[in-house]
Amino acid sequence: MWFEIAFSPLMIFIVILLLSYVSFRFLKRLSPPPRRSELSLEPYACGEGTDRFPPEKIQLNVQLYKYALYFTIFDVMAFILLLSLNANIIYVLIYLAVVLSAITILPRR
Description:
Radius of gyration: 25 Å
Strand content: under 5%
Shape: flat
Oligomer: single chain
Number of strands: 0
Structural class: mainly alpha
C-alpha cells in the first residue's frame, strides 16, 4: 500500500518539485550577485539603449499576426481533436462548429 502511494505520479512530482526548489535556493547562495547598470532600467529592450534603436524610428508590422493567430487556432484545434478520439462524436462536431465559426468571424483584411 505505501509503495503505491510513495511512487504515485503525484508524489514523484512533489518530490521533484521540492528537490528543484531546494537546489535553486542552495545554488542561489553560491552564485555571484547580479550586476546592475543604469541601462537595465531603461524601458526599451532590457537595457540595449535608446541610442541604438530610437523609439520614433521603429515601425511595427502587424500583418503577420493574423497568420500567427490562425496557426495557433488550428494547432490547438488539432491537439484537442487528437485528445478527443474516444469522446462522443456529437461533442467533437459541436467543437468543430464553434472553431470554424470563430475562424469565419476573424477579420479577413
